[in-house]
Amino acid sequence: MSIKLHNLGFPRIGARRELKFALERYWRGEIDLEQLETIASGLRKLHWRLQADAGLDYLPVGDSSFYDHVLDTSVLLGAFPERFGQSSGQVDMDLYFRMARGRSADGKSARACEMTKWFNTNYHYIVPELDSGLSFRAACDRLFHWVDEAHALGHKVKPVVLGPLTWLWLGKSADRDFDRLDLLDGMIPVYQRILTRLAGLGVEWVQIDEPALVLDLPIAWQNAYERVYHALQRSPVKLLLTTYFGALGDNVSLACRLPVAGIHIDLACAPDQWLPVVDRLARYKILSLGLIDGRNIWRSDLAVKLDVVRSVRSRYQGELWLAPSCSLLHVPMDLEPETSLAAEIRPWLAFARQKLGELQILGRALTEGEEVVGPELAASALAVQQRRISERLNDKAVKTRVETIAAEDLHRATPREQRLRLQTESLGLPLYPVTTIGSFPQTDAIREARRKYRQGMIKKSRYKQLMKEAIAHAIQVQKRCGLDVFVHGEPERNDMVEYFAEQLQGVTTTQNGWVQSYGSRCVKPPIVFGDVARPRAMTLEWIEYAQSLTDRPVKAMLTGPVTLLNWAFVRDDQPRRTTALQLALALRDEVADLAASGIRIIQVDEAALAEGLPLRKPEQEGYLNWATEAFRLATAVAGDQIQIHTHMCYSEFNGILQALAAMDADVMTLESCRSDMALVDALAQCEYPGQIGPGVYDIHSPNLPDVESIIGRVEKILEWIAPEKVWINPDCGLKTRQWTEVEPALQNLAEAARRLRLSSGAVAVGPYRVSAGGP
Ligand code: GLN
Ligand code: ZN
Description:
binds zinc ion, eight-stranded parallel beta sheet, 20 strands, single chain, binds glutamine
């Protein structure tokens, strides 16, 4: 069988995050552009070498961005906002970073471009800003230089460009009536020029990414696909139309019909979709099978993959290519340096390099015969089997607990309104209670204490003492500022997910399993490999200590089940819902312990709830049902007097408002400063039944919010929401800020609340009763 192997994209940040550190040093002015370029080019060379060694027939070029590949496309097309002030010539690196980061070399600041999540991943892209005046021109030669660079090294490459329709789909316009498709006429000639220029460099194939084809597309967009690809058909390269992150579904006929030389489909998300594709695909086209899961870290069952290829082959006589399902950007680069993983777990995993190794084995098995790779196939089968039967995976007690979840486990005893009345009274909360979202500045001293403890340089007792000092300081500051509900400040947490992952059974963490989140920011997702349980309390000691220092209620902080799930690599041998419920049960035990020890407010953060939303509408309801069910399972164990808070970071909330209400939290705080309160409007429209704390302090900005601006924001909120439902708090956690900024900001929040209470005629200090003066 003749088969070709290729890759859609490789992790770009470096096994030791070399690109991250180089970028940050460049931004701080510690290295110059030439040094940055040298480091980046070294990484490109290394990554091509690694991929070439895996026997790939085509290596990707253009996947190794300095910041983001969507922004790369925007500059490639010369399509960026006027405020960056460059309408001709080449886009230089500083302008490029300015669009991403909103800072400028000359001190004048232009607002950064918006950033949002790339499909249903945790990668964030820079949103193209679209309007009717936008013009297109070839404004960046970087891609062409990289192709030359790879050719000079003797590699056979397949440049990657983001397709015009997906680029447009991901773009936003301030003008709601603007039809993004109007821009196509200006774009197509620039795409044609780019493709022609690539052909001139000796390129045969171009990978044109159109993941928007796995979405629900309006009819006008479907038609636009036909139009665009008929126009691009005339370019002198072969196009591999690349789709991933889901099934083509109702776009399958459209995609198969487009006049391109080949098509790539994702068989990790949608294993059966090769069937409808081979029924429709003309034999002269290349079919690229996305066999190896590019979104998760499990080793493949190669025997199963071989069966798939044989089944496809029996129905489709055209040329087959094999690849990972999507770019490997979404998995860590290399398993090799992970020395602290349990010996039993390690063989179950495959990171980017190992995935390419799997591809190579498949290629050889199919072209040279299975006997040639007998030992490799046997090792794969063994790893898969051992994982399936491992004791570490299967905890009977946990499974039984999930199976016996009763309806009443999901519901609190009393309806929310009544509960809130009880809570306000027993907690002695004033009107407009002032609180924070959980974390306080992670000072150098705190980081150093954590690092020393991790490296065994200080004893546990010393570490605990240092953390307690940090907590005591946080409590002092909150007292001084006059907040109503305190937090302990989360000094012991390096990360809101990893902190819990390290303490849960069935979950492991890595040392270097970094994945790019945005720009130079990386995350290290934990790995949920088995049945999850909580061997012992995870947060109790710290919260109890904080509560012992004050009479004000201290709000405990937990990361919610859905956020833990969505920010981790999750097992693929059971539905995500089951894993979410297991995580929820573990958190439920923590909630019960906190409540038993006298903690009266518990916040369960669900920052990533909206991130798990399936791409296709019909699947969204099912997800939201079990996601809210998991939240309620984690929290409904709390008695009526215990107040449950949740917190959401900014995301696309439209479409999930009902789900927010269904979580049945008593209070929800959310990021809202940057969305201009549109969210508050939406929540009011849907009559959100709980109390709400829309952020009135933009924590992403170093600016100190003054009392008047806070009051202004609260007054705006009061146009929609009744006063007795409103909380006053920052947008999100304060861990990235300095104490010198935080303390005056909190003072201003408290002062604003005081003035607002006075002007509302409520008692200035002391308990406010919802029922006072009312029925
Ligand atoms: N409690 C967390 C904090 O304050 C919440 C962080 C988040 O929403 N991303 O840091
Ligand atoms: Zn947040």
